[in-house]
Amino acid sequence: MPRPARLTAPSPGVRPESGRVGPLILVLGLLTAFSPLAIDMYIPGFPELGTTLHASDSAVQLSMTTFLAGIVLGQLFIGPISDSLGRRRLLLGGTGLVTVLSLVCAAAPNIETLVAARFLQGVAAAAGMVLARAVVTDRFHGPDLPRYFALLAMILGVAPIVAPLLGSLVLSVSSWRAVFVVLAVIGAALTATVALAVPESLPAKRRHTGGLGGTFAAMGRLLTRRAFVGYLLTGAFMAGALFTYISGSSFVFVRIFDTSTATYSLVFATNAAAMLAANTLFGRLSRRHRLNTLLAVAVAVAVAGAALQGLLLLTVGATMAGTWVCLIIILAGAGMSFPATMTLNQSLGRDNAGAAAALQGSGQFAAGAIGAPLVGVFGSTSVTPMAVIMLVSLVCAALALLTLARPWLGAGELRLAASQLPAPAGSGQIAGQAG
């Protein structure tokens, strides 16, 4: 049964959408997109990087692994801390450090320095990812919240497509070091933009006053909430399937189906377009339909696509057309699920928006870091490993949704509705029901 919970309303007299919303969302989206850029841009330069620094392939790969670890750990610390200290200072500090550490990576004299700098760069980049979600939660309420999260997810979806192309362009005229110089320039631009366009979204009167221990305790309390954990795991397993696709699709289409690089680029772009279209559809439907219903449909679509892929492998075997169609279906479901889980988790954790965003973001990247290498571990000479890993991950997402989140109960929906109500005189809180 639903249980009573404290809800924080917008400050009386303050309109959440006041000011220039478009530029703010764009900046927050770019902050979220920096990490995918930093992950994918330098991948085309791996061979040259290893030669320059006299490093093995595994050592070069470690530079990416440590960056992902930095993102996970950075979000777990920065998110809860921001609930006590506010968002703006941490955003400025994070983007500023990203700029400096990108230059350190560019000048790295050996692989050990690069690996260490990449870990710290991941920690700094985590500030943009986790605090962008927290700022949106602070500023927007009710049906506007899923719409703006859908826009953030859309920008995040474009980043992995643009990153390898941008990296290849830089490498065509310079070395792998220039990629990190470009990242430093992007970091400097983001720092300046945050200073100009992102005001503090968490007033001092709404911050937690129990010290750092209290802010981290809030994270523990969120993890005791069944629905929150359900949405958290649903989003994490969906991300695991997505990372598996990203890491394994090039082997499947280029090596197994013997497609050209141009054809694979078309496949990748088409699948990304399916994600973006589903993301856009979610933003429109979220004003007329329950978010839990949309999430359940999204997960069901993704699972159906993965199940169809398994059925095709068992019957007619692996074909390029069949694999492509199934991936479009899976990624369409994923494109709708990410803003849904993001909105519902942030709605349930509105009183601790930084901690909620930290748990969700770190969970997705941790699942991705586990899922992505599995394709190579189990073999990249067949479609089966990628298909099976994605199916297992998506089935786990469905189980988490059904057994923990229990979408028919509508957890998170009531908090979205209640956050539109005016606060009682002399109070910044309203009472309501939460899942």
UniProtKB/TrEMBL annotation:
This is Multidrug effflux MFS transporter. It is a multi-pass membrane protein. It comes from Frankia nepalensis. One of its GO terms (molecular function) is xenobiotic transmembrane transporter activity. Residues 21-408 form the Major facilitator superfamily (MFS) profile domain. InterPro entries: Efflux_drug-R_Bcr/CmlA, MFS, MFS_dom, MFS_Efflux_Transporters, MFS_trans_sf, Sugar_transporter_CS. It is found in: Cell membrane. Pfam families: MFS_1 (PF07690). Its main location: membrane. Belongs to the major facilitator superfamily. Bcr/CmlA family. The keyword Nucleotide-binding does not apply. It comes from the Bacteria. Keywords: Cell membrane, Membrane, Transmembrane, Transmembrane helix, Transport. The keyword Transport applies. The chain crosses the membrane at residues 21-39, 59-78, 90-109, 115-136, 148-170, 176-198, 228-256, 262-282, 294-315, 321-344, 356-379, 385-405. Gene3D superfamilies: Multidrug resistance protein D. GO terms for cellular component: plasma membrane. PROSITE patterns: MFS, SUGAR_TRANSPORT_1. One of its GO terms (biological process) is xenobiotic detoxification by transmembrane export across the plasma membrane.
